[in-house]
Structures are given as structure tokens and as C-alpha cells.
Amino acid sequence: MYLLKKYCPKNLEGVVGLDKPISEFLKYLGKKPVLLYGSPGVGKTLSCYLVAKKLDLELYEINASDYRDTESLKKVLEIAKQYSIFGKKRLVLIDEVDGLSTQDKGATKELIKILKETKNPIVLIANDAYDQKLKSLKYYCKLIQYHKIHTNSIVKYLKKICDEENVDCDDNILKNIAQRSNGDVRASVLDLQSLISKNKLLPSDYLAPRNYEENIFNSVRYILKTKKIDIAKDVMNNLDRNPDDFFWWIEENVTKEYQETDLENALNFLSLADTVKKRIRKRQDWNLFKYYVDFISVGVALSKEDTYRKFVRYGFPTFISKMGAMKAKRKELEETMDKLQEQMHCSKRIIKEELPYLRQFMDL
Ligand SMILES: Nc1ncnc2c1ncn2[C@@H]1O[C@H](COP(=O)(O)OP(=O)(O)OP(=O)(O)O)[C@@H](O)[C@H]1O
Ligand SMILES: [Mg+2]
């Protein structure tokens, strides 16, 4: 079974290294809207689930995709003002609040209205509390920081998992995993899982090096190494960029890792994903989006017979860099055309038509 799920704490006492923020959370909850903020994977969302459980509140959770606009926030306000059908109080959780649209000015206003008028305790979660978008919201909230989890606490937690799983573990490897995770418990447990091989831990050099692109490299690695559906799905849920970009990341790197029939199967899934994407665009049928995401992740992950144990250095997608370069060139051309338009007193269409001739004697 997937270790992250299996060892996910079932109560607040089991949460690692967060005594202070959690006790503050409990102290202010219901008295003032609470804004939890901090880096990813440290237990912000988790602690809301467990607080709701402890206080016997019905959790009402919404995240960025549910409240992009003023209209959907109006519905949230209604719910925040009512108790549940069993007369229970709710814990209204507004996750990923930094994903709020900046285009829709009414959205922030509506959110503030919710904070003022709610009859239920309310929690907001953000990664960065100093994001400009949160400037006015913060004023109404008690800010509670979720700091990164200390390496020693993570090592202890990983060791406990290894003991329960009967995995022979070397303390140095656990320490390496914890240090690489940079205080992120979720990343460390996922790393641990990918290093477990037949009741032993593989050396941590099997993990791809972390750098400025660490999250996306990790996501690629999980998809290409795992054979489990729930891990592949979880990677997509936690992806830090849009799935269209991720498509190219997988396309670039699957050829480095998979071979023969495995590669053929994976490329078939990517081609299916591409077809589905075109259909979504053409018909505007976003119900198909889940298949697009599954083909890229679960499809590619399950295309291999066995996990490849070799070390592969993943790379940045060539397609994206080429597109980037082309975009820059197009922009340059547009600017030159603007200038030419001014000088030649004619439309852009005509300049475009004349471009091949102009190119003969101008550097365009
Ligand atoms: N402090 C912790 N103690 C034990 N397990 C943890 C802790 N933090 C995270 N985890 C594990 O990682 C999983 C993900 O954590 P969670 O969703 O709470 O992260 P988060 O802080 O909300 O991250 P994000 O900013 O990416 O949403 C949890 O379900 C749990 O299994
Ligand atoms: Mg979260």
C-alpha cells in the first residue's frame, strides 16, 4: 500500500513537529478566521482535517478550482452562514487561497464578506501569506505560520515507517532523504517509498538531483518509476504546473527511461492524450479532461513491465524551449513590423505579404 496514505496521521497527536502552530490554530479557531501559511507538504491541509475530526465539525472544503469567480463564492457564503443538516457546525476550509483570480476583483470582496458574515469557523490556507493578492484578506485573519519540519523529526518519522514495514534502513540514507526534502514531509515519504526495494533501502543517489526545478523533476520521476495507480494520480493532484506543460516533460523523459515495448505503449498513451486534448478544445467538453490527465500519468506509469532501476538524468523538454525561442523571435518580428508600419504607412497585412522581399535587403 501507498506509504503516504498508510502512515498519514489519524489524529493531531500523530502529526510531526507542529505542536506550536496547531495549538495556536485550536486557540483562534471560531474566534477569528485563521490563515495557515507555509511551504508545501508540511501538514497544513492535513491539520485542518484532523482538527475538524477532533472538534467534531463537518468539514466543508473548497479549493482554487471551485472559487475562481464571484458567483461561485456567493454559494460558499450561503454555506458558511448555515449549519449542516444535522445541526452540526461546519469547518469551512478555503484551501489554496493564493490561487484566487486577480482578474476578478469582486472575488476578493466576496471572500472578505464570507470572512465577516460566516457563522461557522473558517480556515484559509496559502503557501505565501505575503502574496499581493492576500493583502486585504490578511487584515481579517489570524496568521499562523507552518514552518518547515526539522530534519531530525523527519528522520524519526521515516524510521518508524521503515520499522513497521520491516524495511532494513540505514540512518545515513534516511538523513539524506530528510535533508533533500527541505522540511517537506510529503516529499520525504514519497522518496522513501521509491527507494524501498525488497525490504531494503536503495542508496539515496537513486533519487534525481534536486535543483530549481526540483518539483517538476520529482513529478516526472514518480510517474516514470511507479507502477501504482494511486501514486500516479497523487502526482497529478500535486502537480505544480499545468498538465499541458507536464505532457511535454513526460514526452521528453520517457524516451530516456523506457525501452522497446514499454516505450511504445507509453507513446501510445501520450498520443491518445493528445487526441483527447484536441477534442476538448474543439468541443469545449472539459469532462474529458480527467482522461487527458489519466493518460499522461496512469497510462504512462502502467506502460512498463517493471520499474527501471538505472539512474536516468531527466531533462527540460526540448519542445518547450523551442517554443520559447520561437515566441521570442515572433515578438521581435512583431515589434519590427510595428516600426515598419509607422514608416511605410500601410497595414500589417501588407507588410506581412511583403516580408519575403523586405528580408532580401533587411535583417528581419
Ligand atoms: N507534519 C506532518 N506529519 C505527518 N505527516 C505529514 C505532515 N505533513 C505532511 N504529512 C503527510 O503529507 C501529506 C500531505 O500533507 P498536506 O496535504 O497537509 O500538505 P500541505 O502543507 O497542505 O501542502 P500543500 O501546500 O502542497 O497543499 C499528508 O496527508 C501526510 O500524509
Ligand atoms: Mg494543502
Could you characterize the architecture of this molecule?
- This protein has 364 residues and is of the alpha/beta class.
- It folds into 3 domains: 18-146, Rossmann fold, CATH 3.40.50.300; 215-316, Zinc Finger, Delta Prime, domain 3, CATH 1.20.272; 320-361.
- It is built from 16 helices and 7 strands.
- It has helices at residues 3-6, 19-28, 44-54, 70-81, 105-117, 135-138, 151-164, 171-181, 185-195, 214-225, 229-237, 243-257, 260-283, 289-301, 318-344, 348-361, and strands at 34-38, 58-62, 90-94, 122-126, 142-146, 196-197, 200-201.
- It has a 5-stranded parallel β-sheet, covered by helices on one side. It has a two-stranded antiparallel ribbon with strand order 6-7.
- Helix 4 (70-81) links the parallel strand 2 (58-62) and strand 3.
- The radius of gyration is 25 Å and the shape is globular.
- It starts with a helix and ends with a helix.
- The structure holds adenosine-5'-triphosphate and magnesium ion.
- Residues 4, 8-9, 15-18, 40-46, 127, 149, 185-186 line the site of adenosine-5'-triphosphate.
- Adenosine-5'-triphosphate (ATP) binds next to helix 3 and helix 9.
What fraction strand?
Answer: 5-15%
Which secondary-structure class do the elements indicate?
alpha/beta
Ions, cofactors and other bound molecules: adenosine-5'-triphosphate, magnesium ion
* N-to-C span: 59 Å
CATH architecture label name of the largest domain = 3-Layer(aba) Sandwich
What is the overall shape? globular
**What is the assembly state of the chains in this entry?**
single chain
Number of helices: 16
Strand order of the largest sheet: 2-3-4-1-5
